[in-house]
Design goal:
The complex is a heterodimer. Chain A is built from 4 helices and 2 strands. A two-stranded antiparallel sheet of chain A has the order 1-2.
């Protein structure tokens, strides 16, 4: 059993569907870290770039768009889509690494 | 045949029929009204057929579509479940009226999906309940949390449902000329056919079909318009140029002498009306009329830019001070509301696995994004048409779209200063819905595309109504009747109750809609704040904090609801104002209260049973966690169904 192993390689050796306490903690810590990073980006994009700072950014123009308006109307939306896609991808990959991938 | 093939053929078939109708129009076979009829009949027929083909009376199928909906299709279904009549018909127009401030809706209604993706979706799927009150009941134990959940789910969903039904009636009456009340009931038949026959299973596949219609019909007019102006068929890219031209034009209009004259005349009207109100002694009905006149004249008197030497028109100006606070608060409330609305959350129960639930949220937002990032383009192109094509023309030579849509009463063109020329201030907007509805004619497209837009609006309203109806009926039949009142009820009995409830709820909603209450629009905006303040804290804490217990959750949900409702009603009717916050952003106060109350009350009362705490930890790990089918606390519902 890969009880002492902290590496994903060790994790892969665990029987499917069962995790050691340490693996559980690692997996969860990774999830919390990823979630936190994504939420920080979400906050900055929504409330600072598309909100409080939008007035200043409007003085910059990109393909006709004042940047502040662009970020609130398109940029932030695109970033949300990418963020969720990244979350799904990374967490699903983590499931594979830890052998807790669900079928289907 | 695989799903991809089925929906591929369906899309091609739909496009083919649209082209055939277009040819029919060209050779003079169909009148405009006939085209409206064909599109309505055709789309309703599609939904009814899907309902019949996917009918079921298996519990897992009926409540959560057998947990077999692949991520991409669940994404499409969620997209049309989410995008309502308001998103489809009204958002483009609202943005063209509100400019930057309106972008709170665009961001709020998309950014909420990130909260849903990281805080709720995958975990709810892993938990494996049937409904949101089901989760609350299983996680917190006992009936108290479940019942608060039922009350919250019905309150949010029902107000929202009435708005959809109203939308259906408006679309049918506007395009086909049927009476509004008849239109409401015709539309409902389409909804009921699906939900009654096959529950979540039918609703899911119908929503996928509806998404395809609504996205095609939303994109076609504005893509074509972008192509005619810039030779680039990507309006989302080209409207930057339009924003620049509009901005220059807005400042010109602010300086123009004729425009100033027209605005001054409106200002005079507003002042006169206000003076009459002030003089007093008039009956209430007369005062209301004058107030409306004063408000309209006041709006027309506002120049498109704040000052003559402004760099940005009002449209592009970012609000400051209280305006900025309200913008941020509203964005936040719409986001948490999005992540707390039961009819959206239930959709993530229908995926086959946690990994598909995660991917599915990404697809959902992508499909929603396609429409929402186009909406500001609609707004910009509509304004451009008025600034560049309408303003300055002679009243005798109005463009075709104006003469065609003026009788519908959405806008009016008046010659305030009697110079025979249309000024910006001469264009009186009564309902900003004209932006999306008249876009095909603005772009110079044949009427068949207007019919397509009608089918799209109908799809948007019906798909949302479907999801809401099912949420309400399941909350009553599954959560209230089965789980609280009669645990021994057979599956057949429960499904019968659900079906009866679906019909009754739909009839009550339709009946309420026929009254055309003005408060409905506000109620929908409130639904977001209510959902955000009541469900969001209880769900997030239930998943992320194992120490959260029943007492805390129930107290927190009530506290969030009460604080939000207090501020809503207080600020709307009794002049309560905290930091100048607008009434639709009330959850900005209720949500933190909800979280804090859950936290404090949970710590003051005994922790939840060990098995529940273990469950909360196990839900973090796919596969190892709880059984992903049926009821998480061992009361296996599919087993009961067998």
């Amino acid at each position: 059993m890969a009880t002492t192993s902290a590496t994903p390689t060790g994790a892969r050796r665990a029987p499917r569907g069962e995790l050691t306490e340490q693996q559980k903690q690692e997996y969860w810590r990774y999830n919390v870290k990823l979630t936190t990073i994504l939420l920080v980006i979400w906050f900055v994009v929504t409330f600072l770039i598309s909100g409080l700072w939008a007035g200043y950014l409007n003085h910059i123009t990109i393909i006709g768009f004042p940047l502040g308006y662009y970020m609130a109307a398109q940029g932030s939306l695109a970033i949300f889509v990418i963020e969720i896609a990244v979350y799904a991808r990374l967490m699903n990959k983590k499931d594979d690494e830890y052998g807790i991938r669900e079928e289907g | 045949m695989s799903l991809d093939k089925i929906f591929g053929f369906y899309t091609l078939g739909f496009l083919g029929v649209t082209i055939l109708i277009g040819i029919g129009e060209k050779i003079g076979l169909f009148s405009n009204q006939m085209i409206g009829w064909i599109f309505m009949a055709l789309s309703l027929l599609i939904y009814v057929i899907i309902g019949i083909v996917t009918r079921t009376s298996n519990a897992d199928q009926y409540y959560v579509a057998g947990r077999g909906v692949p991520a991409v299709y669940n994404g499409m279904a969620t997209g049309s479940d989410w995008m309502s009549a308001a998103s489809f018909i009204s958002m483009g127009g609202a943005l063209s009226a509100q400019g930057f401030a309106g972008l709170a809706y665009v961001m709020g209604w998309t950014g909420g999906y990130l909260l849903l993706a990281v805080f709720l979706g995958p975990y709810l799927r892993q938990f494996g309940a049937y409904t949101i009150p089901d989760f609350l009941g299983a996680r917190y134990g006992g009936h108290a949390a479940r019942i608060v959940g039922v009350v919250g789910a019905i309150a949010c969903s029902f107000t929202y449902l009435i708005a959809q039904v109203t939308g259906v009636g408006l679309i049918i009456s506007r395009f086909i000329g049927l009476d509004f009340n008849v239109g409401v009931f015709v539309g409902l038949l389409g909804v009921l056919f699906c939900s009654v026959l096959g529950g979540m299973r039918s609703v899911t596949w119908t929503q996928v079909a509806q998404y395809i219609i609504l996205i095609i019909s939303y994109l076609v007019p504005v893509v074509y318009l972008s192509w005619t102006i810039f030779s680039i068929p990507i309006p989302e890219l080209t409207y930057g140029q339009i924003l620049q031209r509009n901005n220059t034009r807005a400042i010109e209009i602010t300086r123009d002498a004729k425009e100033k004259e027209t605005r001054a005349l409106w200002k005079k009207d507003a002042d006169e009306a206000n003076a009459k109100i002030k003089a007093g002694g008039l009956p209430d009905a007369e005062v209301d009329k004058l107030k409306a006149q004063a408000a309209l004249a006041g709006r027309q008197a506002v120049a498109p830019a704040a000052t003559e030497d402004a760099k940005f028109s009002r449209y592009l100006t970012v609000p400051a001070g209280t305006g900025m606070w309200n913008f941020l608060a509203l964005t936040f409330c719409l986001m948490v509301g999005t992540a707390g609305l039961p009819h959206i959350l239930t959709r993530y129960y229908t995926t086959p696995s946690v990994r598909q639930a995660r991917t599915s949220v990404a697809w959902s937002l992508f499909f929603i994004f396609l429409l929402y990032f186009t909406a500001p383009a609609y707004a910009a192109f509509a304004r451009f048409t008025i600034y560049a094509k309408l303003v300055g023309t002679k009243l005798t030579e109005l463009p075709r779209w104006v003469t065609l849509w003026k009788p519908a009463g959405l806008f009016d063109v008046v010659d305030k200063n009697n110079d025979g020329i249309v000024q910006w201030a001469d264009f009186v907007v009564k309902s900003t819905d004209f932006v999306v509805l008249s876009m095909p004619e603005i772009a110079g497209l044949p009427f068949v595309i207007t019919g397509l837009v009608m089918a799209g609006g109908l799809a948007a309203a019906l798909s949302t109504a479907d999801g809401l109806l099912l949420t309400i009926a399941n909350a009553i039949s599954h959560d209230l009747y089965y789980n609280v009142i009669d645990r021994t009820a057979s599956l057949a009995k429960r499904l019968t109750i659900t079906k009866v409830l679906l019909i009754v709820t739909a009839l009550i909603a339709a009946y309420t809609a026929t009254y055309r209450l003005a408060i409905i629009v506000e109620l929908v905006a409130w639904a977001f704040s209510l959902a955000g303040a009541s469900f969001f804290p209880a769900l997030v804490m239930g998943i992320w904090w194992k120490r959260a217990n029943k007492a805390g959750a129930v107290a927190g949900m009530w506290a969030g609801l009460i604080v939000t409702a207090y501020y809503m009603i207080g600020s709307r009717f009794y002049g309560v104002s905290w930091f100048g916050t607008q009434t639709i952003a009330s959850a900005i106060f209720g949500l933190p209260v909800g979280f804090i109350v859950i936290w404090i009350v949970s710590l003051m009362t005994p922790p939840p049973p060990q098995e529940v705490q273990d469950l909360v930890v196990n839900v973090r790990y796919p596969k190892t966690g709880q059984a992903t089918k049926g009821d998480p606390l061992g009361r296996d519902l599919p087993a009961a169904a067998r």
